[in-house]
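Write out the 3D structure for:
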Amino acid sequence: MNANNLHLALEQLRQGGVIGYATEAVFGLGCDPDNGAAVQRLLEIKQRPLEKGLVLVAADMSQLLPYLDLSKLPEGRLSEILNTWPGPNTWVIPAKTEVPTWLKGRFDSLAVRVSAHPQVHDLCLAFGKPLVSSSANIAGQPPARTAEQLTLQLGDKLDYILPGTTEGRANPSLIRDGSTGAILRPA
């Protein structure tokens, strides 16, 4: 990844901007999960209701620890979750009580993923914490799979689109319940 492009993306994130970036299968929209105004703007761009909650994507598990209450997971579940990361596996895990509604929606849990996509990993590592990660589209429409598609669909609403490519996966990440292992959304 070009260092200047990374710098521009980080600058926007630190200023409360909403950016587009490549993930494993589709482009994502991202922002600082701790900035309520940025998250609200991302939801408005997507026309996504707050109640649905959002996904956090991280470079490693340590970035997710401030948001999760791992003590509420049944014994043995954490090791199963960790064995699927990094990779295109999103897990719904109990959230700490102080996690804001703008992230968890109507739930007491949070959807989280440690990405294997090199650009996502490097972006989160450089930012020092996870990003909100939501497919780059208006709710109900197909997500952008290229930077060009994203520019056409939402480019005028975003603060920056980080140049990059997806890994060509056909579908967004598998979503599973961290407490039971049940599949909530197939890949």
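The first helix runs from residue 3 to 14.
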